[in-house]
Amino acid sequence: MVVHHVWIMPVLSVTCALIAMFSGYSIGVAKERFPPFFPFISDGGGYSPEANIFGQFLNMAGFLYVITVYVVHIQIVAFYGHVLKWNRSRWYYSSLLLMYIGFLSALGMTMVANFRYTEILPAHMIGAMMTFIAMVIYGWGHAIFGYVVIPRMIALGVIHFRFVLIILTTCCLILHQVAASSLAFVPDGAGAGENPGIEGMRSEESPFHKTYSTATSCEWGMILVMQVFILTFIAELRLLRACSPFGVEARQAGGRT
């Protein structure tokens, strides 16, 4: 069996991720669990029924992301190893390492999906950080790989676009972490020694509101921009054909008999 549309994998992964995010957000807002202005993405996966939809589609997104990361690596191996006949060297091991980093990001996604922050917060937070950090490292790796390894599989314009996207993603990640783990956006002398919690930070009168809104908006920006980055892999995968070696072998055997 030959699969002619391997490029659909990143599209399906991104589609499932967006459904998870926006379904959880929409239902949560409709049930007045949080205000409509940029809650944390995980807020949409805290309570049923939105948490069930959020978790289901995020698990699917993680699975499809694993396939995407794998076939991107296979495409690199096919181009440089089989077409150009390069020996396995730094290009191969760099791609292999990036694939494993991508797998780690997908594992983090499934942890976010399966460990609700309302039930097992430490596991949820570990999964979120795995997703964020591994995804950014994966993006930087492919952006640099595209510039360094010549000849290139894709147009230089796509690589430039990826570079811009990963810079934006990194900036969002840094701002998110600064806002989430410090008082950098709290006015001087305000809120000293307070621990208002998420509900308190959501109030526009709270001195922590700017911190909260910065962290949440950067989280949304980071994930949405990274989804665009994942879609850029269509450029490589649109020419890839996946073939089952067992299917080919069976047809050959059938022909001989």
UniProtKB/TrEMBL annotation:
InterPro entries membership: CWH43_N, DRAM/TMEM150_Autophagy_Mod
UniProt main location, coarse: membrane
Membrane topology: Multi-pass membrane protein
Pfam families noted in UniProt: Frag1
GO cellular component: endomembrane system
Coiled coil: none
Protein family per UniProt: Belongs to the DRAM/TMEM150 family.
Protein name as annotated: CWH43-like N-terminal domain-containing protein
Organism: Cylicocyclus nassatus (Nematode worm)
